[in-house]
Amino acid sequence: QVQLVESGGGSVQAGGSLRLSCAASRPSLSNFAMGWFRQAPGKEREFVAAISMSGGTTVYADSVKGRFTISRDNAKNTVYLQMSTLRPEDTGIYYCAACWHSASIHERAYNYWGQGTQVTVSS
Asked: Which of 58, 62, 92, 110 sees the fewest Cβ atoms within 10 Å?
C-alpha cells in the first residue's frame, strides 16, 4: 500500500511563504495523480490543488490561485505545494493524497492519504 508523508509545515507570518512536501516512503508516485487538501479548525476538509501523473495538468481552488503552486518530481517520488502571500485563513492541517486515476477536486476520488502537516499563519 502507498504510504504518504507530508513535511514542511510550520508557523509563518501573513504575507510569508512556505513549501510543503509529500513523499512516498515506498515507490512509486508516478502511477498516481496527486492532490492537496486542507482542513481548518472546526471546518470541513477542502480541496487546494491537484496535479496529473505527468505533471502536465494542474488544478487550483479559487482561494489559492495565483498564490500557491503544485509541482512534482517523479524522480524524487515527491510532490510539492509552494505557498506564497499566505493569509491567516490559509491556516489548517494540510494533507496530500494519491489518486489511481486523474487529478480531481473531489476528495472521494483519492485512494491514499498522508497524516497531514500543520500550517499556521499569524496576522
From this structure: 62
For residues 123, 119, 48, 95, the Cα torsion angle rounded to the nearest 10 degrees is -170
Q: Profile the chain (123 residues) by mean pLDDT over runs of 10 residues.
A: 93 98 85 96 96 95 98 93 98 96 95 97 96
Spatial separation of the C-alpha atoms in residues 121 and 26, rounded to whole Å: 31
Q: How many other C-beta atoms are found inside a 10 Å radius of the C-beta of residue 94?
A: 24
Torsion of CA 107, 57, 100, 46, to 10 degrees: -10
- How far is 94 from 46, CA to CA, in rounded Å? 10
In this prediction, residue 55 carries a pLDDT of 93
Return the pLDDT at 109: 96
